[in-house]
Structures are given as C-alpha cells and as structure tokens.
Amino acid sequence: MVTLTLRIPDSLDKELDRQSTASRLSKSDLVREALQRYLRVERFRTLRSKLVPRAQAQGINTDEDVFRALDEL
C-alpha cells in the first residue's frame, strides 16, 4: 500500500476527526472511502458523457427507453 501525504485546512481536519470518532473508523479509512467514491463517480460521469450521445442517436432518451431496449435483448 502506498502512503499519500496531503494538506487540508484545519476546519476539514476537525470535521474529519468528528466523523472518525462518530463512525469509529480511522481518518485514513474515511479518506480512502471518500476518494474511492469520488473516483467511481468521476468514472461514471466520464462513461456517461461518452455513452449518452450514442444512446440518443439510437433514440434512447429516457429510463423507459433503456429498459425497453434491455428487454429486447
């Protein structure tokens, strides 16, 4: 596992301390989970931005259109 050092404002550190105590997780665990969640969301946004134009070109514009297309598979 790699060690990452970063600087955060004192106010964020205090909030992290409070959450760490409340959740009984280490600050490292909380930051690791938050970073993983952020990276997943960004990966999803990137994929979505690439796929939406392709879907729209095929007439898929709503959730219902997606479910209908999946039912046809």
Can you walk me through this structure?
This protein has 73 residues and is an all-alpha fold. Helices cover 74% and strands 0% of the residues. The chain is built from three helices and no strands. The longest helix has 31 residues. The mean pLDDT is 95.
- Please estimate the helix content: over 70%
Biggest sheet record: none
Rg, Cα atoms, Å? 20 Å
Low-confidence stretches: none
Topology:
Layout: H1 10-23, H2 27-57, H3 63-71
Q: Would you kindly provide a brief summary of this structure?
A:
This protein has 73 residues and is mainly α. It has helices at residues 10-23, 27-57, 63-71.
Features:
74% helix, mainly alpha, single chain, 73 residues
